[in-house]
């Protein structure tokens, strides 16, 4: 086998392995598409939110990225369907956050299993 053919096989196999394991550097077109999508999202959010609300959403994204993503999706959907009148203030964002929290609320239950201890009166426990 020629060196060029061997190198081409290696590069192709390396690309396949990167794609299988989700390496973002594997496909530059996918990386560009994700970057364009992020720019579009940021543009829409900049048009929809005022400065204080945008800062609050940024802080939320640092702590709970999944909840921030859900709120962003909700805001973008509302903007696309024309359900927003003007920019959303910080108080409006708080209301949206509460609504999203109620929808995604996980109910936790705690169950206590109390073990019955056989305690006889004949034995004195000190």
From TrEMBL:
| Span list, region Disordered | 10-36
Q: Where is the signal peptide?
A: none
Any single biological process term in GO: apoptotic process
Q: One MF term from GO for this chain?
A: DNA binding
Which keywords are on file for this protein? Answer: Acetylation, Apoptosis, Phosphoprotein
Biased amino acid composition, Basic and acidic residues: 10-24
Function, as annotated, reads: May function in the process of apoptosis.
Q: What is this protein called?
A: Programmed cell death protein 5
What organism, scientifically named, is this protein from? Dicaeum eximium
| Recorded name of the encoding gene | Pdcd5
């Amino acid at each position: 086998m020629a060196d060029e053919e061997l190198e081409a096989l290696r590069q192709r196999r390396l690309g396949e392995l990167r794609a299988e394991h989700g390496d973002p550097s594997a496909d530059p077109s996918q990386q560009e598409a994700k970057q364009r999508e992020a720019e579009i999202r940021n543009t829409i959010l900049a048009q929809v939110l005022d400065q204080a609300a945008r800062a609050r959403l940024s802080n939320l994204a640092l702590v709970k990225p999944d909840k921030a993503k859900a709120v962003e999706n909700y805001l973008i959907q509302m903007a696309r369907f024309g359900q927003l009148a003007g920019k959303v203030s910080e108080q409006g964002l708080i209301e949206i956050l509460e609504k999203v929290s109620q929808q995604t609320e996980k109910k936790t239950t705690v169950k206590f299993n109390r073990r019955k201890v056989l305690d006889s009166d004949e034995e004195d426990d000190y």
